[in-house]
Amino acid sequence: MSMQEELSAYGSWRTRVEQAIVRIRGWLFESNLNDSHNDQCIEQLLLKLHDDRLVIAFVAEFSRGKSELINAIFFGDQGARILPSSSGRTTMCPTELMYDAGRPPCIDLLPIETRRTSTTVTDLKGQPGAWQRVALDTNSTASMQQVLARVSEQRKVAIGEAELLGFRIDLSGETGLQPDSHGMVDVPAWRHAIINLPHPLLRQGLVILDTPGLNAIGAEPELTLSLLPAAHAVLFVLGMDTGVTQSDLAVWKTHVTAAGGSRQGRLAVLNKMDSLWDGLRTEAQIETEIARQITTCATTLDLPENRVFPVSAQKGLLARIQHDGTLLTRSRLPQLEQALVEDLLPAKRDIVAAAVEQDAGNLLARTAEMLSVRKRAIDDQLAEFSDLRGKNRGVIQYMLKRVRTEKEDFERGLERFYATRNVFASQTNALFAHLGMDALRTRTAQTRELMERANFSLQLRDAMNAFFGEVRGSLQKSEASVAEIFQMMEAMYQRFSTEHDLRLGVPVPFSVHRYEKDITRLEKAFHQQFNTWLNLLTTEKRQLTQRFFETVAVQVRKHMEVVNRDVEHWLRAIMAPLENQVREHQQQLKRRLESVKRIHEATDTLEDRIEELRQNEAAIDHQLEELARLRAMLDATLKAPVMREMDAAA
Q: What domains are defined for the chain?
């Protein structure tokens, strides 16, 4: 299948999963089996599925043909270049191509002047007034080309202004922007661009991130610290004629693999392969040169050779416009596309399926256990009431006394439950004292104060390092609090299971270790991009402080917000089964006591009550069967092979 067919098939699979979840929600509601915790779980799951995106980032130094590659892969069916692609610098600001049905086709441009504030691009996305919107006429390719060319706009500013905007100045132009003879510097006119385009691939949830070259990308650290690490695939574009240059390697090390770790989802593209088609080389010589460049590139970037792809984006685009299959094959563009699809979609589908399986599976398991508890209670009552047939009033009175005793014993157990819940609340407060956003805000304010008071570069460095150390320390302390909560709940689960025959199993464990790894990754990126002696010695203290807090500290805050959300979800998940079964057991005891009372007061109601219990048991059996069908339906949907629309229709 082509990339469009593969993405369309993945989108259809995701839609079927959403429909399965909606069916489960509807059945729970109709069966009167929903509760606030389950409702919240389902809403969060549907929101994740609805907002699911596949992000592919394209990264390169200037003039590597990156925008042309995007045109060739995604917009060859338009009959012309859509993104600006010419000699020199084209994409001057980070550009996202996506589709949001709630907005008209347009390009939203964020003025570069917003860098003077401490507000991040992510936060500014929630402030429409900060952006300039230009409508897109999707019926006119020429009009779209003219509007989209605005991402390459620049403006001249004085050196001081460029530095205030976060750009590094270098008279040689090697490590920063080079001033002209009048002391003026060309800077991007825009800080960020979002293109909202109803393209078939973008409609399926694909997001394309086009990045500028080294000097421009370095001015927006949010790319390195947030957008690129969040991308599901990163295509690093190089020139076949140049190989990996020093500036290419700087982009790779500083921005693509700044956090180290796995190279999963990272592909290198040797573009401009057609530069070898000079008419002087034989095909064998061309293949030898391509193989040599692949080996050199793979060794330099520490990538397997099968993740380095030689292509000709320009010839691939031309082939698609002219419908030339032979030229398209020679451009090797289809091989890159196939590798991208095979690398991206199965991994993405596995992640989504695992999340649905865990959340929806736990919900269905909790519901099945609750129904089983009800069924066991009915079975016990049926056995008791059947034994009463033909018995005298004294036996019934004895049973009434026994049920009352059980109810009293359970109510004493409830006192322990309420006491445990109070301790649970105290431990939760202690956990969020380490982990909560209030603690992080206090820590951030203290770090800012230390940096503003610093007189030497070493003091600045110590303050920034201490910030990360304290964040890691808070996560480690929270790990201990989580362990205490888990141990207490595990003991309570065991006690209620033993003393009151509740089927609670084992509480779900939780660990903050993976969040510590996220903070460590962020810290590594920070050390490579910010915490260098060159930065500390050449960057003015106020500017460095501002950049630290508008990028690094903001990213830490976002990570900690995720930790807080997940911890809150776990705390609800670990308490909900106990609360639900305690409530259910309490209601069953109440119903049982009322039934025995009625039988004691009027013995002739015994048969009526037995029949009523049998009907209730049959209803629960039906619910358990329907629940099993829903579970099987969800499993089949998650594991079903991805099919194109025409296959699904057939």
A: 53-153+189-321 (3.40.50.300), 388-601 (no CATH)
